């Protein structure tokens, strides 16, 4: 059953005496109904080279991590695009009209990863997640620029003249 489940195993010997009792509490999570960002394990860098990844934690109606293997759709705000859409377009180049929304898959601990195409566009990223029978959830985060070392350039203006160099006037004659 979905939710909390309690199992008890009784081990008996040949005379029907109880040798050992084992009990386990197992939570069988339900379908996804809520999500939140997991920014601490996301990679939100817009450097044009690396693949940005948004990690989300997905929960069931009881507040447990959603069942591994559960799926759901998502949409991204422009100009961001998921790697799934690019791959689907490359497979079906001529039939680009039948694109479905990309999907996430819940893994262990309720984590799902949304992989984006590399981009240099920084700014706000919105992820919309529809959940059955509920209002769509909208998560917001920021794509950050790559942190790079700074190179400082300076200009100097000055004049060095023959008369300003003391003690060497005669050496040039």
Task: Give descriptors for this structure.
mainly beta; 5% helix; 173 residues; 1 helix; four-stranded mixed beta sheet
Structure explained in plain terms:
The chain is 5% helix and 36% strand. With 173 residues, the chain is mainly beta. The strands form four sheets. A four-stranded mixed sheet has the order 4-11-10-7, with no helix packed on it. The longest helix is centred in the middle third of the chain and has 9 residues, at 83-91. The mean pLDDT is 82.
Task: Walk me through the topology.
Elements: E1 3-12, E2 18-28, E3 34-37, E4 45-46, E5 53-59, E6 71-73, E7 75-76, H1 83-91, E8 103-105, E9 111-115, E10 123-129, E11 137-145
Parallel strand pairs: 4-11
Antiparallel strand pairs: 1-2, 3-5, 5-9, 6-8, 7-10, 10-11
Quaternary organization: single chain
The fraction of residues assigned to DSSP E strands is: 35-45%
Total number of helices:
1
Order of helices and strands: EEEEEEEHEEEE
Summary of the model, kept short:
With 173 residues, the chain is mainly beta.
């Amino acid at each position: 059953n979905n939710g909390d489940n309690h199992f008890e195993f009784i081990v008996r010997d040949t005379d029907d005496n109880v040798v050992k009792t084992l009990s386990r509490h197992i939570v069988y999570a339900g379908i996804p109904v809520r999500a939140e960002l997991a920014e601490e394990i996301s990679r939100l860098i817009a450097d044009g080279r690396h693949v940005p990844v948004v990690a989300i934690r997905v929960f069931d109606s009881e507040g447990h991590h959603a069942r591994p293997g559960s799926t759901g759709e998502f949409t991204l705000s422009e100009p961001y695009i998921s790697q799934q859409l690019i791959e689907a377009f490359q497979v079906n180049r001529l039939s680009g009209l039948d694109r479905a929304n990309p999907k996430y898959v819940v893994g262990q601990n309720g984590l799902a990863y949304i992989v984006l195409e590399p981009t240099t566009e920084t700014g706000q990223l919105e992820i919309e997640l529809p959940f059955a029978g509920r209002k769509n959830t909208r998560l917001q985060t920021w794509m950050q620029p790559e942190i790079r070392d700074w190179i400082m350039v300076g200009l100097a203006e000055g004049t060095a003249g023959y008369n300003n160099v003391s003690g060497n006037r005669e050496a040039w004659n």
